[in-house]
Design goal:
Elements: E1 2-6, H1 10-21, E2 25-29, H2 33-40, H3 51-60, E3 64-67, H4 70-76, E4 79-82, H5 97-109, E5 114-118, H6 126-141, E6 147-151, H7 161-166, E7 171-174, H8 178-188, E8 198-201, H9 203-234, H10 238-246, H11 267-280, H12 286-309, E9 318-322, H13 337-347, E10 351-355, H14 360-366, E11 373-375, H15 379-383, E12 388-391, H16 403-409, E13 414-417, H17 424-429, E14 433-436
Parallel strand pairs: 1-2, 1-4, 2-3, 4-5, 5-6, 7-8, 9-10, 9-12, 10-11, 12-13, 13-14
Helix pairs in contact: 1-3, 4-5, 5-6, 9-11, 9-12, 12-13
The structure holds nicotinamide-adenine-dinucleotide (NAD).
Length: 442
């Protein structure tokens, strides 16, 4: 099939490369000319394991191309996927300006029947808005073309995005027309050969499904963090409690790790958007609000743990920080807990020596080269002369460090672990003062 993917970011690029891998002809469009130029030169603008091979192979086989020319892409394609960002607006709702802008441009340029697919995460009612602006543009041109608007939310995870797209747990398609549903089923059939379901539903339900999925996962994270905070007051062992509940099949072991809370480009904004949707319908979403509040608190509590250890005096202290990305295997720092901690630490007069395998360039740019934050080429280089080590992201290489070397490089053997990577007994026997999430308070 001929496909246009509009918005070539984390979702659009993976979507485009994976559809091309299955033999479709895909044009990925982006408004950012420098991104398109880089992709045309074979440079992948994001870190996503496995993606480069897919992109290179499909570009070489001429099934995948990149362009800034939305008109040509739309005119050549039957299905147009909208995969632009939907950031949080000032009132917490999803900012749909980019989605509607693309919809307008599709309406301005379409030259035949099109299926317009919402791949971006968009709130209930967006398909109606997309339909309206496309129709307005057609009317302004005095043209009449049939089109359908479909909701096909994306569930990939950064870090395993290619695998997730190639082998989805399920594909959700929201559409009001049986034939369009069949077309999307045909497109996705090669991805679900192992019987993952393609769930066809109405558009509104598909739009809400994406938010409900993210909200449930966020709830699991805040839930286990709340239990960890109860552990720290009762002396219960959070690792044991986690295992004890996670082995119940009704609960499951995934997304039950205590830590610094959720971040990234999706959960925080999607939670806010869902809360906004509920409130605007006159329903106070108490569970969702509590999940968000616990998440915000988690970062603050961890910072206070650090500050308390130094009796509130962090001025002039230097902290090594391992991990900046919001989770491992990505260079994405959007809403990363590390950034909140860095802000608190800098405000308190501390300095930071950070290391991350992939996210240092993005963080350097975000912090606009603040001199109090130095970036180290290796995890060990970050430790040199620091008062303590702070762990923000659970990259695999941080899991089994040479603790003797860590000790010899730090000014004092102190670790604040926001991801519970180590055994408290082992660290104590090695002479570390080790602080982790859920630890009993003194
Ligand atoms: N990142 C994820 O893990 C993930 C997972 C599932 C769903 N989503 C959702 O997918 C959507 C996209 O997320 P993302 O992380 O890929 O965003 P992103 O910011 O990485 O990419 C969006 C791209 O759209 C481009 N763009 C903006 N306006 C444009 C226009 N008018 N024409 C062409 N291109 C334009 C931007 O230049 C950018 O490259 C969001 O709604 C997000 O919530 C993201």
């Amino acid at each position: 099939m001929k496909l246009a993917i509009i918005g070539t970011g984390y979702v659009g690029l993976v979507t485009g490369a994976c559809f091309a891998e299955m033999g479709n002809e895909v044009i990925c469009v982006d408004a950012d000319a420098s991104k398109v130029k880089a992709l045309k030169q074979g440079r992948i603008p994001i870190y996503e394991p496995g993606l480069e091979d897919y992109v290179k192979r499909n570009v070489k086989d001429q099934r995948l191309s990149f362009s800034t020319d939305l008109t040509a892409a739309v005119q050549q394609s039957l299905i147009c996927f909208i995969a632009v960002g939907t950031p949080q607006d000032q009132d917490g709702s999803a900012d749909l300006s980019m989605v509607l802008q693309v919809a307008r441009e599709i309406g301005r340029t379409m030259n035949g029947y099109k299926v317009i697919v919402e791949k971006s995460t968009v709130p209930v009612g967006t398909a109606v808005k997309v339909r309206r602006v496309v129709q307005e543009e057609l009317a302004a041109r005095g043209e009449v073309w049939e089109f359908d608007v479909v909701s096909n939310p994306e569930f990939l995870k950064e870090g395993t995005a290619v695998d997730d797209f190639m082998k989805p747990d399920r594909v959700v398609v929201g559409c009001d027309d049986v034939q369009v549903g069949e077309l999307l089923k045909e497109l996705y059939a090669p991805f679900v050969r192992t019987h993952a379901p393609i769930i066809i539903m109405d558009v509104v339900s598909a739009e809400l499904t994406k938010y409900a999925a993210n909200a449930f996962l966020a709830t699991k994270i805040s839930f286990i963090n709340e239990i960890a905070n109860i552990c720290s007051r009762t002396g219960a062992n959070i690792t044991m409690v986690r295992q004890g509940i996670g082995s119940d099949r009704r609960i499951g072991p995934l997304f039950l790790f205590p830590g610094l809370g959720y971040g990234g480009s999706c959960f925080p904004k999607d939670m806010q958007a869902l809360i906004h949707t509920a409130r605007s319908q006159g329903y106070p979403p108490r569970v969702l609000e509590a999940v968000e509040a616990v998440n915000q608190d988690q970062r603050r509590l961890f910072f206070h743990r650090i500050a308390d250890f130094y009796q509130g005096d962090l001025k002039g202290r230097t902290f090594a920080m391992w991990g900046l990305s919001f989770k491992p295997m990505t260079d994405d720092i959007r809403e990363a807990p590390s950034l909140t901690l860095i802000a608190h630490l800098l405000e308190a007069g501390a300095k930071i020596q950070a290391h991350d395998p992939e996210a240092m360039a993005a963080t350097r740019q975000y912090l606009e080269n603040r001199p109090e934050v130095r970036f180290a080429d290796s995890s060990y280089a970050a430790l040199k002369g620091a008062d303590a080590l702070i762990i923000c992201t659970e990259w695999a290489k941080f899991r089994e460090p040479d603790f003797e070397r860590v000790k010899s490089l730090l000014k004092a053997p102190v670790i604040f672990d926001g991801r519970n990577l180590y055994s408290p007994d082992k660290l104590a026997s090695l002479g570390f003062q080790y602080f982790y999430i859920g630890q009993k308070l003194d």
